[in-house]
Amino acid sequence: MPRRTKLIVAVVVLAVLVAAAFVLPVPSPAHLRDWAAGAGPATALLFLAAYSLLTVAPVPRTVFNLAAGLLLGPVAGVAVALTATGISGLLGFGLARLLGRDLVSRHLRRKAVRTVDERLAGGGVLAVTSLRLIPVVPFAPLSYCCGILSVRPLPYLAGTVLGSLPGTVAVVVLGDALTGGTPPALLACYLGFALVGALGMIKVLRGAAYGSRTEQPATLDAVRGEGVRARFHQEVQAVSEE
């Protein structure tokens, strides 16, 4: 397809999408919450299944955590998201151990591979938790890595849930806030930010007041010095004229 034709197609598709955004009715977050509540427990079960299966592949969990807060609320959203995180982590771990363990065992004689395997397996829950807390470490690839190495399943599961807890709670609460309500967790964060800002402003104001007090005597001394010099010149001039 020629470049000009591709450009025209892209512009037409973009125009159609923009027009659809203005014409088609888009449900608000509050309406989506009401729809999910009207569907009953089926919503949570379907969401749990989709979250658990789709994130076995390298699909970002952030989207599902936002959706959990938006559809299910903060309490149920966190519970479902963490449960799905554990199931997804175990599925990725099990698939990697079933399919890739034999491939890695051939390379365990190499010092670098053996060192990584020993450190990760020996670290247990703490090692897995620490890695899960690092945002730049992808969820699914880490599950595969732990599966093909010698990490035991129970420490891996505990570390996965513990390490994923803070980020999951934060994103689910953010998704819940999209419905228009202000959850207590966000209120606590806002209060903390306001307190830090107030303390910073007090420090700035005190510093400015202290600076003005220290500069005032120096200014007065300069004015007095100018007055003394002026009187001295006047007296010298009067003596010379006499």
Automatic annotation (TrEMBL):
Cellular location(s): Cell membrane
Primary location: membrane
Boundaries of every VTT domain copy: 59-176
Superkingdom of the organism of origin: Bacteria
Membrane-spanning intervals of the chain: 35-54, 66-99, 119-142, 154-173, 185-205
InterPro entries: TMEM64, VTT_dom
Key words, A-Z: Cell membrane, Membrane, Transmembrane, Transmembrane helix
Entry membrane topology: Multi-pass membrane protein
Family: Belongs to the TVP38/TMEM64 family.
Name recorded for this polypeptide: TVP38/TMEM64 family membrane protein
